Input
Amino acid sequence: EAGVAQSPRYKIIEKRQSVAFWCNPISGHATLYWYQQILGQGPKLLIQFQNNGVVDDSQLPKDRFSAERLKGVDSTLKIQPAKLEDSAVYLCASSLGWGAETRTDTQYFGPGTRLTVL
Amino acid sequence: GENVEQHPSTLSVQEGDSAVIKCTYSDSASNYFPWYKQELGKRPQLIIDIRSNVGEKKDQRIAVTLNKTAKHFSLHITETQPEDSAVYFCAASSRGYSTLTFGKGTMLLVSP
Output
């Protein structure tokens, strides 16, 4: 099966500029996640969608970050304006659904977008 | 919320040796514990996972053990090979949700 697709793979911007990332999950996967991975750390969840509804955005810096998944498939993550500390890899992941007793919550990651803010 | 601690941060072994990475979690409601391998510049890939209704799971050279009472779980790699060199992340997820909290990672270096 095709994996999670992300674009662009790399992005370099100046601080205070805006940037957007795109994610296409595995076909049929209802749940989509955006993670931020700072160099040397584990991925940190920014936002989780179930279909086109937000399940968890408690760690999303809402003053500058926004995300949407309008038709329950593709998703975009935007940063406006960017700060130096936003330099990281932004990973998108998807899973079939969610549930404690099934394998539907196995998450598959995309290749990520490496953002550098100068 | 959940907090996951992972040790060691780096681990160097000789080819053929065993490697053990340990993680502890804080939320007793967590019931799903995956391990991901991330090679330099690549995406995290699931290598093995365990659910709270089992204590151990094996897949060839990889095994994971879970101690719910102590709230810790471990990854065991036997007969390590140079291609096992990567960063390994543990994670924990609570019942009813699929939100993962990751550890900070362990860089495993396997020398030929």
